[in-house]
Design goal:
The chain is an alpha/beta fold and 429 residues long. The chain folds into two domains: 215 residues, no CATH class; 108 residues, no CATH class. 36% of the residues lie in helices and 14% in strands.
Length: 429
Protein backbone atom coordinates (compact mmCIF):
# COMPACT_ATOMS: atom_id res chain seq x y z
CA UNK A 1 0.00 0.00 0.00
CA UNK A 2 1.43 3.36 -1.04
CA UNK A 3 1.28 6.14 1.54
CA UNK A 4 -0.89 9.14 0.76
CA UNK A 5 -0.18 11.17 3.90
CA UNK A 6 3.12 11.91 5.63
CA UNK A 7 2.80 12.98 9.29
CA UNK A 8 5.07 15.15 11.40
CA UNK A 9 3.86 13.54 14.62
CA UNK A 10 5.87 15.01 17.46
CA UNK A 11 9.15 16.30 18.83
CA UNK A 12 10.76 16.09 22.24
CA UNK A 13 13.57 17.96 24.01
CA UNK A 14 15.49 16.16 26.75
CA UNK A 15 18.00 18.65 28.12
CA UNK A 16 19.37 16.19 30.71
CA UNK A 17 20.05 13.48 28.13
CA UNK A 18 21.14 16.06 25.54
CA UNK A 19 18.76 14.96 22.80
CA UNK A 20 16.21 16.41 20.44
CA UNK A 21 14.03 13.78 18.84
CA UNK A 22 11.40 13.77 16.11
CA UNK A 23 8.77 11.27 15.11
CA UNK A 24 7.37 11.01 11.58
CA UNK A 25 5.00 8.44 10.09
CA UNK A 26 2.72 7.70 7.15
CA UNK A 27 -0.83 6.42 6.78
CA UNK A 28 0.69 3.23 5.34
CA UNK A 29 2.19 2.31 8.69
CA UNK A 30 5.77 3.50 8.14
CA UNK A 31 7.47 5.22 11.08
CA UNK A 32 10.69 7.23 11.24
CA UNK A 33 12.66 8.48 14.24
CA UNK A 34 15.17 11.30 13.92
CA UNK A 35 17.52 12.19 16.78
CA UNK A 36 19.93 15.07 17.29
CA UNK A 37 22.38 15.40 20.15
CA UNK A 38 23.48 18.55 21.91
CA UNK A 39 25.10 19.66 25.15
CA UNK A 40 22.53 22.01 26.61
CA UNK A 41 23.61 24.77 29.00
CA UNK A 42 22.55 24.41 32.65
CA UNK A 43 18.99 25.50 33.30
CA UNK A 44 17.84 25.08 29.70
CA UNK A 45 14.09 25.57 29.34
CA UNK A 46 12.59 23.10 26.92
CA UNK A 47 9.52 25.32 26.64
CA UNK A 48 11.60 28.27 25.45
CA UNK A 49 13.28 26.10 22.82
CA UNK A 50 10.05 24.64 21.40
CA UNK A 51 9.51 27.15 18.53
CA UNK A 52 13.07 26.66 17.22
CA UNK A 53 13.04 22.88 17.62
CA UNK A 54 9.63 22.60 15.96
CA UNK A 55 10.84 24.60 12.96
CA UNK A 56 13.96 22.45 12.64
CA UNK A 57 11.71 19.40 12.52
CA UNK A 58 9.84 20.97 9.60
CA UNK A 59 13.18 21.35 7.78
CA UNK A 60 14.24 17.79 8.56
CA UNK A 61 11.01 16.12 7.45
CA UNK A 62 11.58 16.78 3.76
CA UNK A 63 14.61 14.45 3.85
CA UNK A 64 12.15 11.62 4.59
CA UNK A 65 9.20 12.77 2.51
CA UNK A 66 11.18 12.81 -0.75
CA UNK A 67 11.45 9.01 -0.65
CA UNK A 68 7.67 8.72 -0.39
CA UNK A 69 6.20 11.64 -2.37
CA UNK A 70 2.91 11.51 -0.52
CA UNK A 71 0.28 13.95 -1.85
CA UNK A 72 -0.10 15.51 1.59
CA UNK A 73 2.17 16.48 4.47
CA UNK A 74 0.16 16.68 7.68
CA UNK A 75 1.61 18.47 10.70
CA UNK A 76 0.48 17.15 14.07
CA UNK A 77 3.43 18.40 16.15
CA UNK A 78 2.35 22.04 16.12
CA UNK A 79 0.00 24.52 14.53
CA UNK A 80 1.03 26.63 11.53
CA UNK A 81 -0.44 29.89 10.33
CA UNK A 82 -1.33 30.22 6.62
CA UNK A 83 1.83 32.30 6.21
CA UNK A 84 3.95 29.55 7.75
CA UNK A 85 2.40 26.99 5.41
CA UNK A 86 3.38 29.17 2.45
CA UNK A 87 6.96 29.38 3.76
CA UNK A 88 7.33 25.61 4.03
CA UNK A 89 5.59 24.75 0.76
CA UNK A 90 7.86 27.26 -1.00
CA UNK A 91 11.02 25.82 0.57
CA UNK A 92 10.04 22.24 -0.18
CA UNK A 93 9.08 22.96 -3.78
CA UNK A 94 12.01 25.19 -4.75
CA UNK A 95 14.55 23.49 -2.49
CA UNK A 96 13.80 20.13 -4.10
CA UNK A 97 13.96 21.52 -7.63
CA UNK A 98 17.08 19.55 -8.55
CA UNK A 99 15.60 16.39 -7.02
CA UNK A 100 12.46 16.77 -9.14
CA UNK A 101 14.48 17.48 -12.29
CA UNK A 102 16.90 14.58 -11.89
CA UNK A 103 14.08 12.15 -11.15
CA UNK A 104 11.79 13.69 -13.79
CA UNK A 105 8.98 14.27 -11.28
CA UNK A 106 6.21 16.73 -12.09
CA UNK A 107 6.27 18.88 -8.95
CA UNK A 108 3.47 21.25 -9.97
CA UNK A 109 0.85 21.10 -7.24
CA UNK A 110 2.60 18.10 -5.70
CA UNK A 111 3.35 19.49 -2.25
CA UNK A 112 0.51 20.32 0.11
CA UNK A 113 1.10 21.08 3.78
CA UNK A 114 -1.85 20.94 6.17
CA UNK A 115 -2.26 21.10 9.95
CA UNK A 116 -4.19 18.47 11.83
CA UNK A 117 -7.05 19.82 13.90
CA UNK A 118 -6.04 20.18 17.51
CA UNK A 119 -2.31 20.58 16.82
CA UNK A 120 -0.80 22.61 19.70
CA UNK A 121 -0.07 26.28 19.15
CA UNK A 122 3.63 27.11 19.25
CA UNK A 123 4.35 30.79 19.69
CA UNK A 124 7.60 32.74 19.37
CA UNK A 125 9.41 33.43 22.63
CA UNK A 126 11.50 36.58 22.96
CA UNK A 127 14.97 36.62 24.48
CA UNK A 128 17.08 39.52 25.64
CA UNK A 129 19.19 40.67 22.70
CA UNK A 130 22.71 39.69 23.68
CA UNK A 131 24.66 40.90 20.68
CA UNK A 132 26.55 37.59 20.68
CA UNK A 133 27.40 36.15 17.26
CA UNK A 134 27.15 32.55 16.10
CA UNK A 135 28.77 31.66 12.76
CA UNK A 136 27.92 28.34 11.08
CA UNK A 137 31.06 26.60 9.78
CA UNK A 138 30.88 24.08 6.96
CA UNK A 139 34.54 23.49 6.27
CA UNK A 140 34.85 25.74 3.23
CA UNK A 141 36.29 29.11 2.34
CA UNK A 142 33.11 31.17 2.81
CA UNK A 143 32.72 30.70 6.56
CA UNK A 144 36.48 31.20 7.01
CA UNK A 145 36.22 34.54 5.21
CA UNK A 146 33.22 35.51 7.36
CA UNK A 147 35.30 34.75 10.45
CA UNK A 148 38.21 36.80 9.13
CA UNK A 149 35.97 39.79 8.34
CA UNK A 150 34.48 39.71 11.84
CA UNK A 151 37.91 39.36 13.45
CA UNK A 152 39.30 42.27 11.42
CA UNK A 153 36.37 44.39 12.62
CA UNK A 154 37.02 43.42 16.22
CA UNK A 155 33.74 41.52 16.52
CA UNK A 156 33.94 38.40 18.68
CA UNK A 157 32.06 35.28 17.57
CA UNK A 158 31.58 31.57 18.19
CA UNK A 159 31.61 28.85 15.53
CA UNK A 160 28.61 26.57 15.07
CA UNK A 161 28.83 23.14 13.46
CA UNK A 162 26.24 20.52 12.55
CA UNK A 163 27.59 16.96 12.79
CA UNK A 164 31.16 18.33 12.63
CA UNK A 165 33.71 16.44 10.58
CA UNK A 166 37.17 15.60 11.99
CA UNK A 167 39.14 18.22 10.06
CA UNK A 168 36.87 21.08 11.21
CA UNK A 169 38.76 21.38 14.50
CA UNK A 170 42.11 21.94 12.76
CA UNK A 171 40.56 24.51 10.44
CA UNK A 172 39.01 26.46 13.31
CA UNK A 173 42.32 26.54 15.14
CA UNK A 174 43.65 28.76 12.34
CA UNK A 175 40.98 31.39 12.98
CA UNK A 176 40.39 34.11 15.56
CA UNK A 177 38.51 31.71 17.85
CA UNK A 178 38.32 28.01 18.49
CA UNK A 179 35.15 28.33 20.58
CA UNK A 180 32.32 26.31 19.08
CA UNK A 181 28.87 24.89 19.68
CA UNK A 182 27.75 21.82 17.82
CA UNK A 183 24.69 19.67 17.26
CA UNK A 184 25.20 16.02 16.43
CA UNK A 185 23.21 14.61 13.53
CA UNK A 186 24.07 10.99 12.86
CA UNK A 187 23.21 10.77 9.18
CA UNK A 188 23.93 7.05 8.85
CA UNK A 189 21.70 6.17 11.80
CA UNK A 190 18.88 8.65 11.19
CA UNK A 191 18.47 7.95 7.51
CA UNK A 192 19.16 4.20 7.47
CA UNK A 193 15.48 3.42 6.66
CA UNK A 194 15.55 5.88 3.75
CA UNK A 195 18.75 4.32 2.40
CA UNK A 196 16.99 0.96 2.37
CA UNK A 197 13.98 2.46 0.59
CA UNK A 198 16.26 3.95 -2.05
CA UNK A 199 17.85 0.53 -2.58
CA UNK A 200 14.33 -0.74 -3.26
CA UNK A 201 13.72 1.95 -5.88
CA UNK A 202 12.58 5.03 -3.96
CA UNK A 203 13.68 8.33 -5.53
CA UNK A 204 16.74 10.04 -4.11
CA UNK A 205 18.52 13.31 -4.63
CA UNK A 206 19.46 16.78 -3.46
CA UNK A 207 17.69 18.45 -0.55
CA UNK A 208 17.89 22.07 0.75
CA UNK A 209 20.39 21.15 3.46
CA UNK A 210 21.35 24.79 4.04
CA UNK A 211 17.87 25.40 5.46
CA UNK A 212 18.43 22.56 7.94
CA UNK A 213 21.85 23.97 8.82
CA UNK A 214 20.48 27.49 9.40
CA UNK A 215 17.54 26.38 11.52
CA UNK A 216 19.73 24.05 13.59
CA UNK A 217 22.02 27.05 14.23
CA UNK A 218 18.95 28.97 15.40
CA UNK A 219 18.26 26.18 17.92
CA UNK A 220 21.82 26.53 19.21
CA UNK A 221 21.54 30.32 19.27
CA UNK A 222 18.31 30.13 21.24
CA UNK A 223 19.76 27.64 23.72
CA UNK A 224 22.97 29.58 24.34
CA UNK A 225 21.69 33.14 24.12
CA UNK A 226 23.07 34.31 20.77
CA UNK A 227 21.22 37.03 18.90
CA UNK A 228 23.01 36.99 15.52
CA UNK A 229 23.27 33.89 13.35
CA UNK A 230 25.71 35.00 10.65
CA UNK A 231 25.69 32.69 7.65
CA UNK A 232 28.07 32.77 4.69
CA UNK A 233 25.90 32.87 1.57
CA UNK A 234 26.98 34.71 -1.55
CA UNK A 235 25.56 36.48 -4.58
CA UNK A 236 26.53 33.70 -7.00
CA UNK A 237 23.77 31.50 -5.55
CA UNK A 238 21.21 33.61 -7.40
CA UNK A 239 22.01 32.00 -10.78
CA UNK A 240 20.01 28.84 -11.45
CA UNK A 241 21.09 25.67 -13.23
CA UNK A 242 18.42 24.64 -15.71
CA UNK A 243 14.78 25.28 -16.66
CA UNK A 244 12.28 22.51 -15.90
CA UNK A 245 8.51 22.59 -16.40
CA UNK A 246 8.57 26.34 -16.79
CA UNK A 247 10.60 26.99 -13.62
CA UNK A 248 14.29 27.66 -13.00
CA UNK A 249 15.89 24.90 -10.96
CA UNK A 250 18.51 26.23 -8.57
CA UNK A 251 20.78 23.77 -6.76
CA UNK A 252 21.51 26.56 -4.28
CA UNK A 253 17.94 27.75 -3.61
CA UNK A 254 18.33 27.67 0.18
CA UNK A 255 21.41 29.90 -0.27
CA UNK A 256 19.58 32.59 -2.27
CA UNK A 257 18.73 36.09 -1.13
CA UNK A 258 15.05 35.20 -1.47
CA UNK A 259 15.34 32.40 1.05
CA UNK A 260 17.65 34.40 3.33
CA UNK A 261 14.99 37.11 3.56
CA UNK A 262 12.25 34.55 4.14
CA UNK A 263 14.06 32.59 6.84
CA UNK A 264 15.10 35.78 8.65
CA UNK A 265 11.47 36.93 8.69
CA UNK A 266 10.28 33.48 9.75
CA UNK A 267 12.69 33.35 12.69
CA UNK A 268 11.72 36.84 13.85
CA UNK A 269 7.98 36.19 13.57
CA UNK A 270 7.69 32.57 14.67
CA UNK A 271 10.77 31.71 16.76
CA UNK A 272 12.38 34.69 18.45
CA UNK A 273 12.17 38.39 17.42
CA UNK A 274 15.59 39.04 18.97
CA UNK A 275 17.43 36.58 16.69
CA UNK A 276 18.69 37.92 13.39
CA UNK A 277 19.67 35.58 10.55
CA UNK A 278 21.70 37.13 7.73
CA UNK A 279 24.70 36.62 5.49
CA UNK A 280 27.74 38.81 5.84
CA UNK A 281 28.97 37.88 2.35
CA UNK A 282 25.71 38.30 0.41
CA UNK A 283 26.91 41.31 -1.67
CA UNK A 284 29.89 39.35 -3.03
CA UNK A 285 30.29 36.90 -5.87
CA UNK A 286 32.21 33.69 -5.20
CA UNK A 287 35.24 35.05 -7.02
CA UNK A 288 35.30 38.11 -4.77
CA UNK A 289 35.19 35.88 -1.70
CA UNK A 290 38.07 33.81 -3.07
CA UNK A 291 40.06 37.01 -3.63
CA UNK A 292 39.70 37.77 0.08
CA UNK A 293 40.41 34.17 1.02
CA UNK A 294 43.61 34.20 -1.03
CA UNK A 295 45.05 36.74 1.44
CA UNK A 296 44.96 34.14 4.23
CA UNK A 297 47.56 31.47 3.46
CA UNK A 298 47.12 30.08 6.98
CA UNK A 299 43.82 28.58 5.76
CA UNK A 300 45.07 26.93 2.58
CA UNK A 301 45.80 23.51 4.11
CA UNK A 302 42.77 23.49 6.36
CA UNK A 303 39.69 23.88 4.19
CA UNK A 304 37.81 21.62 1.79
CA UNK A 305 34.82 22.65 -0.31
CA UNK A 306 34.60 19.39 -2.27
CA UNK A 307 31.53 17.41 -1.20
CA UNK A 308 33.24 14.08 -1.80
CA UNK A 309 36.27 15.19 0.16
CA UNK A 310 34.51 16.57 3.23
CA UNK A 311 34.78 13.24 5.04
CA UNK A 312 38.44 12.74 4.18
CA UNK A 313 39.61 16.34 4.32
CA UNK A 314 41.02 16.04 0.79
CA UNK A 315 39.96 17.39 -2.60
CA UNK A 316 38.81 14.69 -5.03
CA UNK A 317 40.09 16.65 -8.05
CA UNK A 318 37.31 15.32 -10.29
CA UNK A 319 34.05 17.10 -9.45
CA UNK A 320 32.58 20.43 -10.53
CA UNK A 321 33.32 22.02 -7.15
CA UNK A 322 36.98 21.06 -7.38
CA UNK A 323 37.16 22.36 -10.95
CA UNK A 324 35.56 25.65 -9.94
CA UNK A 325 37.66 26.17 -6.82
CA UNK A 326 40.88 25.33 -8.64
CA UNK A 327 40.10 28.01 -11.23
CA UNK A 328 38.96 30.56 -8.65
CA UNK A 329 42.08 30.13 -6.52
CA UNK A 330 44.27 30.12 -9.62
CA UNK A 331 42.93 33.59 -10.42
CA UNK A 332 44.75 35.03 -7.41
CA UNK A 333 47.49 32.58 -6.44
CA UNK A 334 50.52 31.16 -8.22
CA UNK A 335 50.15 27.88 -10.13
CA UNK A 336 52.57 26.28 -7.68
CA UNK A 337 50.50 27.31 -4.65
CA UNK A 338 47.19 26.09 -6.05
CA UNK A 339 48.66 22.82 -7.26
CA UNK A 340 49.99 22.31 -3.74
CA UNK A 341 46.52 22.79 -2.24
CA UNK A 342 44.95 20.22 -4.57
CA UNK A 343 47.98 17.90 -4.84
CA UNK A 344 47.64 18.06 -8.64
CA UNK A 345 47.21 20.61 -11.42
CA UNK A 346 43.60 20.30 -12.57
CA UNK A 347 44.34 22.43 -15.64
CA UNK A 348 46.60 19.61 -16.83
CA UNK A 349 43.73 17.12 -16.69
CA UNK A 350 42.00 17.23 -20.07
CA UNK A 351 39.30 14.89 -18.78
CA UNK A 352 37.99 17.91 -16.86
CA UNK A 353 37.53 20.01 -20.00
CA UNK A 354 33.80 19.15 -20.34
CA UNK A 355 33.25 20.28 -16.75
CA UNK A 356 34.94 23.60 -17.42
CA UNK A 357 32.83 24.04 -20.54
CA UNK A 358 29.72 23.53 -18.41
CA UNK A 359 30.99 26.05 -15.90
CA UNK A 360 31.20 28.76 -18.55
CA UNK A 361 27.83 27.98 -20.14
CA UNK A 362 28.74 25.80 -23.10
CA UNK A 363 26.13 23.23 -22.11
CA UNK A 364 22.36 23.33 -21.54
CA UNK A 365 22.80 23.39 -17.78
CA UNK A 366 25.28 24.43 -15.13
CA UNK A 367 26.67 21.65 -12.89
CA UNK A 368 24.49 20.90 -9.88
CA UNK A 369 26.97 22.10 -7.32
CA UNK A 370 27.81 25.27 -5.39
CA UNK A 371 29.88 26.91 -8.12
CA UNK A 372 30.21 30.44 -9.46
CA UNK A 373 28.16 32.05 -12.20
CA UNK A 374 29.03 31.53 -15.85
CA UNK A 375 30.55 35.01 -16.10
CA UNK A 376 32.72 34.78 -13.01
CA UNK A 377 33.92 31.30 -14.00
CA UNK A 378 35.08 32.71 -17.32
CA UNK A 379 36.71 35.61 -15.47
CA UNK A 380 38.48 33.17 -13.14
CA UNK A 381 39.90 31.29 -16.12
CA UNK A 382 41.08 34.54 -17.72
CA UNK A 383 42.82 35.62 -14.50
CA UNK A 384 44.32 32.13 -14.16
CA UNK A 385 45.89 32.57 -17.57
CA UNK A 386 47.36 35.86 -16.36
CA UNK A 387 48.90 34.07 -13.38
CA UNK A 388 50.60 31.57 -15.69
CA UNK A 389 51.97 34.47 -17.68
CA UNK A 390 53.35 36.15 -14.55
CA UNK A 391 55.03 32.90 -13.59
CA UNK A 392 56.59 32.59 -17.06
CA UNK A 393 54.78 29.28 -17.64
CA UNK A 394 52.96 28.08 -20.75
CA UNK A 395 49.21 27.66 -20.55
CA UNK A 396 48.20 24.13 -19.51
CA UNK A 397 45.94 22.12 -21.85
CA UNK A 398 42.58 23.06 -20.25
CA UNK A 399 43.26 26.79 -20.41
CA UNK A 400 44.51 26.48 -23.99
CA UNK A 401 41.29 24.80 -25.05
CA UNK A 402 38.93 27.39 -23.55
CA UNK A 403 38.08 30.95 -24.71
CA UNK A 404 39.65 32.43 -21.60
CA UNK A 405 40.26 35.87 -23.19
CA UNK A 406 36.49 36.36 -23.18
CA UNK A 407 36.71 36.55 -19.42
CA UNK A 408 38.46 39.92 -19.55
CA UNK A 409 35.11 41.57 -20.24
CA UNK A 410 33.93 40.50 -16.79
CA UNK A 411 36.66 42.22 -14.75
CA UNK A 412 34.07 44.68 -13.29
CA UNK A 413 32.63 41.75 -11.30
CA UNK A 414 35.57 42.09 -8.92
CA UNK A 415 34.32 45.46 -7.65
CA UNK A 416 30.56 45.02 -7.78
CA UNK A 417 28.45 44.81 -4.63
CA UNK A 418 24.95 43.34 -4.61
CA UNK A 419 22.03 43.77 -2.17
CA UNK A 420 22.19 42.62 1.43
CA UNK A 421 19.89 42.34 4.45
CA UNK A 422 22.76 42.47 6.93
CA UNK A 423 22.36 45.13 9.65
CA UNK A 424 24.27 48.34 8.95
CA UNK A 425 27.04 47.50 11.42
CA UNK A 426 27.90 44.45 9.36
CA UNK A 427 27.88 45.94 5.87
CA UNK A 428 31.02 45.19 3.85
CA UNK A 429 33.11 48.05 2.55
Amino acid sequence: MDASRFFYDSFAIDAEQGTISYQYSTDAGQAFSHTLTMVFPPGTSAEVLRPAVFALGMAELIHYWKALLTPEIVVRAGALTPEQVVFWENLYTKGLGEFFYVNQIDFRGLITVSVEEGAPEILATASDASGKRLVPFGGGKDSLVTGAVLADAGKEFTWYTLEPLPFFADAMKQTATSESISIGRDVAKNFAPIVEMVKQGAPNGHVPITATYILSAVVAAKAYGYSDVIVSLERSAEEGNVEYLGHIVNHQYSKTLEFERMVHAYVQEHIDPSIRVFSLLRPLYEIQIVERFAKHPEYFRHFVSCNRGLKTGRWCGECAKCAFMFAALSAFLSPETVTGIFSKNLFEDEALLPLYEELIGKDKSKPFDCVGTYDENLLALYLSGEQYGKAGLPLPPVLKALPIEDGKAHLPLLTEHGPSIAPSEYRLS
